[in-house]
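Hi R.,

Here's the input for the coenzyme A complex you asked about:
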Amino acid sequence: MSRDPDFDADLAAYGGWRALAREQSLWAVWLYRAGRRLDRRPPGAARRWLSRLYWPLFRLVETVTGVSLPKGAEIGPGLRIWHFGGIFINESARIGARCVLRQGVTLGNRHPDGPSPWLGDDVEIGAYAQILGGVRVGHGARIGAMAVVLQDVPDGASAVGNPARVIAARGVRPSAAITADGGLPPPESAA
Ligand SMILES: CC(C)(COP(=O)(O)OP(=O)(O)OC[C@H]1O[C@@H](n2cnc3c(N)ncnc32)[C@H](O)[C@@H]1OP(=O)(O)O)[C@@H](O)C(=O)NCCC(=O)NCCS
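And here is the predicted structure with coenzyme A in place:
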């Protein structure tokens, strides 16, 4: 099987292949990438059979990991999910490249069949943050733990609270600055 450059970037964000044995969320990311490849296959018997296999596997991984990443969602390379459980991404949501999600995050609509969030590149979402509706979260933005985001967040800004308010506007910061345990770097190293 040929390599998937998006999954290679995911693996790099997780620190390599060993993460497959110790990070459940990576199983959900792998299945998401496999589902995207499946949708690119030409119609035919192989695609039909693989689709039949995909759906029970999707429900199994969703149940075991608590991470729901439907293949209809658009997710850029280098996704990093810290910890696991309670993560739901609507199938019409968009997540840019090198984004970070933490446990309990929802990207969903506000009303049935309503629009879903759009996340730029290098966005970091704190634990249990809920991002609802057709909001745009700009490149390099940070969303605080437990925030409920109902309005757009500008590039490089941080938003916290319920409903979320913007607390700072900053330049784009690469996710590489995240510490080994998924936290944010201490203030003295952020200069
Ligand atoms: C949003 C966040 C990135 C902001 O970090 P920061 O830019 O260093 O902001 P500060 O800590 O200086 O806080 C700025 C203000 O926002 C408030 N604030 C920060 N995070 C908040 C949050 N999650 N919810 C509500 N208010 C928050 C602070 O109390 C402070 O308010 P004040 O100005 O009235 O005193 C960070 O607080 C956060 O929530 N990160 C997510 C971490 C996470 O999910 N950890 C779980 C690891 S498993």
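One thing worth noting: The domain at 5-167 is CATH 2.160.10.10 (UDP N-Acetylglucosamine Acyltransferase; domain 1).

Cheers,
M.
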